[in-house]
């Protein structure tokens, strides 16, 4: 079983948005004021979208544009869980789950093959408060405030391709993926049993994994990445609609879980408010991790976004000492990477 991961890095470019709010703004002079999510680093403020919100947008895109049948949710008092059936429901497979119903002795969990960061502004960003009003009624106008910002924002994700459509039933948190009933159903279906190359039983023999058909696994992994073309979301879209599809993307398959592209975007200026592309840093990681890349590295850029780096990026296609690189549009990069990825899945 090949231990390979998809490593993805994206940039989005948004203007006058409030993508992920944080509740009441206690610093505002208005009672009805909402704050956006911000975090501080090195004394500077950065806006961000939580990883959970990004995953929500991702699920919505997969459901609406790829016909994924989402796992139903059960609510019990203060807990909620999905069906925990990754054989039938692809979102249980890709996004993971934990199901521990009250009164049941069988708890099943699955570590998500899809892992993602928050989406955070690439430079220091200070939201501004916009005061709006409701005045279509008799009497005094009702004022309310909301924070808005413009920013280039970065995010990372990884998909464990070896674990897509592949399940264990070891009695260990995160590894008991299937209930007894599902395990029996899987054994009767077209799923196959394969050796786990990393886990041995008490006799030193490989434990077994249940693996779905190759075509199913290829489709689930490909759909997940293709969904980035149509992903949408964010708070206050009625008045602050923003496009959250990638304007720049890197897609690569690696043989390690290490994500190499985290620092190819930086900032400069007196208040770190100007975004800069770290081309030297990109070349450095391509050279340093050359032996861990499997196949071509695909880079996509939307025309009109960071046009100043276009010529530098083109030089990567003929540069010696790095993996093969292809420079394309964003959607072409996604399409061609997905075709490569399908051929890499065993």
Primary descriptors:
346 residues; alpha+beta; 12-stranded mixed beta sheet; 3-stranded antiparallel beta sheet; 8 helices
What features would you describe in this structure?
This protein is α+β, with helices and mostly antiparallel strands. The protein has one domain. Helix content is 23%, strand content 34%. The chain has eight helices and 21 strands. Strands 1, 2, 3, 4, 5, 10, 11, 12, 13, 17, 20 and 21 form a twelve-stranded mixed β-sheet that branches. Strand 15 and strand 16 (206-211) form a beta hairpin. Helix 4 (214-226) runs antiparallel to helix 8 (330-344). The radius of gyration is 23 Å and the shape is globular. The termini are close together. The model has no long low-confidence stretch (mean pLDDT 92).
| Proportion of strand residues | 25-35%
Note the main sheet.
12 strands, mixed
> What is the alpha-carbon Rg in Å?
23 Å
- In the residues, how many domains can be counted? 1
User: Low-confidence stretches at least 5 residues in length (pLDDT < 50)?
Assistant: none
Helix tally equals 8
SSE pattern, N- to C-terminal: EEEEEHEEHEEEEEEEHEEHHEEEHEHEH
Fraction of helical residues = 10-25%
Mean pLDDT: 92
What structural class do the secondary elements suggest? alpha+beta
Shape: globular
Question: Total strand count, please?
Answer: 21
Please give the alpha-carbon distance between the first and last residues: 7 Å
